[in-house]
Structure formats: structure tokens, C-alpha cells
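hey
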């Protein structure tokens, strides 16, 4: 059987042990409270040594940027002794550093009530007003777009007198971003995040700085971290989804180029560029992609605009020079094409494709300086022999010197030109050599015959007799239609 006496004895022992343990815990807590509150109690009792310890503790907290702890200690000290002037002075300085200017001013004034005429406090109060005014001015300048002056106010005044001012630090980062100093914005926002890794403003601005440097993966990580902290943050959401949309449009354009869907790619590139015209680091690649597609489509005039946009951003980009050179060839700007391709060849002397493009441009420029015999006869390059002969006969009749007595000199020049055009285009071999780009000298042009330098059977139609005289012209091979040409 169970011994009841033993059971009750065991229960009594457990109860006594619990009671003793509870008393020990209460004494321990009481002792801790005495130790922690001793500086405050001593300060309220007017013991300057312990008050100094408290203020030293506050100073140490401020050094390690534990501003909340420092404020709690100062608040407790003032609550314990509302006449403790040094606590007001320390709290006023701390609040000024945090740019809590209204609260700081109250404490400075309270300190001056307790310590009238204190020069140091009056000077600090003046600095407070300077910082307060500078912060307000910097904000106004930021809104008006004068970023440089705003940055000067923040750096030279606000952060000198209020080095712990989070508002001023964020404003400085915004100003650096607006000034396109992206590296500076990344650096300064990094300091903020070291102190407060969950600062949403710093995460947003730092993400934007990486975005404008086209470091999109890092930008996305900053936006995502901010959205995990606050999923409904409107600016973070806008930045995040805006970047995702830009990357989607860019990839669509590139994919369509690979698939050969060039016209669709053009629209994708244009849509991507419209999303953020200020994103220079990324848009330079979009403009280049669009330029290349337009060149492939033979849309030289449109391509020129896109290629020039690239070079406005980065004038050293060789590929953009090449593509603009190709676009200028399409628009028959031969000299411009040679200039661009020559510059590209100098930047990449080992690139064979650039050298070949330059040779094409130089040949086109050289050909452009020759007489355009097709244009002179008014026929297309695809004209048949019969079309060329008809055009020649019509123009020869129109410009014969005997039929243009009032402008004989002009008619003689025109007649020579027309005859020279027919000499080339009316001969299958010479026409083929002309079309291939061979020099006229290589085709026997420039021999005897006409005084203008073109040979026609050794006959000079203006070589004898006076004006108004009838001539019989016998051109080599005969005039179109057979026989001589009698006026």
C-alpha cells in the first residue's frame, strides 16, 4: 500500500523549493532594477558623478548610432529630474543631428532657461536654424530642378549640422540620381542601408541607380527586397514592373530579329524605346538594334535617325558608325558613307567586313562623280537598246546647234554630252563596262574627234565653217534609223 505520509512529505518539499526559487528571482530582478536605475536616481539626487556617467553612456550610444537608446536614456533622466540642464542640452543636440528641429529648439530654449546666456547653446541654436532653412531651401531647389545648388545646401549646411538626418541623406541620394551621378547614388544609399537595411527609400533609389547603369539584375533584387517589406509600395511596384516590361519588350524584339520577322522587330524596338526615353545605357542598344534592322530592310532614311541616336550617346561605338555608313549608302550620301566607314576602319583596322564596306563606299563615291549617261539620255538603267536609240535621236534633234542659234554654246555642250552618252550606252561592250564601274579612260573615252574630247569617226561637227551653216553628221555606226543625219 502507498504510504500517505511519504506522499504529503514529498509535496511539502516541492512547495518549499518553489517558494524559495520565487523569492530568489524577485530579489534578482529588484537588484537589476537598482543597478540600471542608479544613474537616474543619483542624477535626481543631484549627484554630479552619476549624472556624468549617464551622459557618457548617452554619448557612447550616439557614437555607435544607437540614437533611440540615447533618447530613451535622456527622456528617463529628464523625467526623473526636470531640472537636469545637461540632459536638455544633450537631447537638443541629438534632436538637431536627427533634424527634428522643432523638438530640438524646445530643448535648447529650456536649457537656456536653466542656463541663461550660455554662448555654446545659443550658437548651436543658430546652427539649428541654418540647417532647418537649408533643408527647406534644398527641397525647393530639388522641386525646381536646380540639383547642383540643392546638393550644395545639403552637403555644406544640413549634413554638417545634422549629420544623422535621414531625410537629408535621402534627399542627397535623390539629387545624385537626378544629376545622373549613379555611382554616387549607389555609394550614398549604401551607407544608409548599412544603418537601416530595411529603408525602403534607399532600396528604391539604389535600385534605380543600378537600373540606369543597365545593371538590371541588381536593380530587380533591390526592388524585390523592398516589395517583400512592403508589397503595396506604389513606387517600388511601378519600378519593378516597369523594368520587367522593358526587358520583355527588348527580348521580343531580339527574338523577332532571329526569326527574320524584321518589321515586327521594328515595332518592338520602338515600343521598348518609348517605355523610358531617359534610360540611356539601355536605349543605346535598342537604337542600335533598330538601326541594324532598318538597314536590312533598306529603309536608309529611317536607319540614319536611329544610328545617329546611338552615336549621340556613344560616339566611339564602331558598329554604329558602320551601320550609319550603310544607311548613308542607301540614301546615296556617298561622301558621308565613306567618312563613317573610314572612321570605323581606323577604330577596327583588322575587321575585314568594315574594309570591304569602305571599298564599296569609295567605289560608289567614285562612280557618283562620273557622268550619268542614263540620266543625260533620260532613260532607266534597265532601258533596252531601242529605247536608248530613240532617246538619243530625240535629244540630238532637240539640241542640234543649228536649231539653237540663240543659245548655240549651250546647245553645243548639250549635243556633245548626248553624243557621248550614246557612244557608251549604244555599244553593248562599253555599256557593260560602264555599268561595272570601269573608268571612262579605260573605255577609250577622251580620244580625238569632237573638241569636247569624245571621238565619233574622226569627224568634228564644229570644226569648220560658220554658224548657221548646214552640216552632214556621219556618226560611227550611223544615226539611229540608218544612214547619215542631214540638217
Amino acid at each position: 500500500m502507498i504510504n500517505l505520509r511519504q506522499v504529503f512529505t514529498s509535496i511539502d518539499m516541492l512547495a518549499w523549493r518553489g517558494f524559495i526559487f520565487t523569492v530568489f528571482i524577485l530579489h534578482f530582478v529588484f537588484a537589476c532594477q537598482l543597478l540600471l536605475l542608479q544613474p537616474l536616481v543619483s542624477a535626481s539626487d543631484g549627484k554630479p558623478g552619476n549624472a556624468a556617467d549617464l551622459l557618457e553612456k548617452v554619448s557612447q550610444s550616439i557614437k555607435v548610432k544607437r540614437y533611440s537608446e540615447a533618447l530613451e536614456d535622456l527622456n528617463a533622466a529628464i523625467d526623473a529630474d526636470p531640472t537636469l540642464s545637461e540632459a536638455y542640452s544633450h537631447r537638443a543636440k541629438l534632436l538637431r543631428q536627427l533634424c527634428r528641429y522643432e523638438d530640438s529648439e524646445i530643448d535648447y530654449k529650456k536649457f537656456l532657461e536653466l542656463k541663461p546666456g550660455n554662448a555654446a547653446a545659443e550658437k548651436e541654436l543658430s546652427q539649428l536654424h541654418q540647417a532647418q532653412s537649408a533643408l527647406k531651401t534644398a527641397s525647393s531647389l530639388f522641386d525646381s530642378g536646380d540639383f547642383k545648388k540643392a546638393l550644395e545646401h545639403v552637403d555644406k549646411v544640413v549634413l554638417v549640422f545634422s549629420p544623422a538626418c535621414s531625410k537629408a541623406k535621402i534627399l542627397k541620394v535623390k539629387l545624385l540620381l537626378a544629376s545622373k551621378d549613379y555611382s554616387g547614388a549607389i555609394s550614398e544609399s549604401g551607407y544608409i542601408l548599412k544603418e537601416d537595411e530595411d529603408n525602403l527609400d534607399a532600396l528604391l533609389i539604389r535600385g534605380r541607380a543600378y537600373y540606369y547603369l543597365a545593371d538590371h539584375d541588381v536593380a530587380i533584387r533591390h526592388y524585390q527586397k523592398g516589395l517583400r517589406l512592403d508589397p503595396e509600395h506604389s513606387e517600388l511596384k511601378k519600378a519593378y514592373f516597369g523594368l520587367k516590361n522593358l526587358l520583355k519588350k527588348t527580348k521580343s524584339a531580339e527574338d523577332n530579329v532571329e526569326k527574320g520577322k524584321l518589321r515586327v522587330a521594328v515595332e518592338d524596338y520602338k515600343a521598348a524605346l518609348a517605355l523610358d526615353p531617359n534610360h540611356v545605357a539601355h536605349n543605346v542598344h535598342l537604337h542600335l538594334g533598330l538601326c541594324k534592322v532598318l538597314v536590312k530592310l533598306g529603309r536608309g532614311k529611317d536607319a540614319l535617325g536611329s544610328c545617329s541616336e546611338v552615336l549621340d550617346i556613344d560616339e566611339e561605338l564602331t558598329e554604329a558608325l558602320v551601320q550609319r555608313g550603310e544607311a548613308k549608302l542607301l540614301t546615296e550620301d556617298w561622301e558621308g558613307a565613306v567618312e563613317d566607314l573610314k572612321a570605323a576602319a581606323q577604330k577596327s583596322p583588322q575587321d575585314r567586313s568594315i574594309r570591304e564596306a569602305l571599298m564599296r563606299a569609295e567605289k560608289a563615291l567614285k562612280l557618283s562623280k562620273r557622268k550619268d549617261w542614263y540620266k543625260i539620255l533620260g532613260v532607266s538603267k534597265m532601258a533596252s537598246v531601242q529605247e536608248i536609240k530613240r532617246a538619243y535621236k530625240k535629244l540630238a534633234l532637240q539640241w542640234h546647234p543649228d536649231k539653237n542659234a540663240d543659245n548655240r554654246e549651250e546647245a553645243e555642250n548639250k549635243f556633245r554630252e548626248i553624243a557621248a552618252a550614246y557612244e557608251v550606252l549604244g555599244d553593248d561592250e562599253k555599256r557593260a563596262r560602264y555599268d561595272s564601274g570601269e573608268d571612262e579612260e579605260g573605255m577609250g573615252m577622251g580620244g580625238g574627234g569632237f573638241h569636247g574630247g569624245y571621238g565619233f569617226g574622226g569627224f568634228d561637227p564644229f570644226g569648220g565653217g560658220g554658224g548657221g551653216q548646214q552640216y552632214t553628221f556621219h556618226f560611227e555606226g550611223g544615226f539611229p534609223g540608218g544612214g547619215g543625219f542631214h540638217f
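The chain has 22 helices and two strands. Residues 29-48, 446-487 have pLDDT under 50 and may be disordered.
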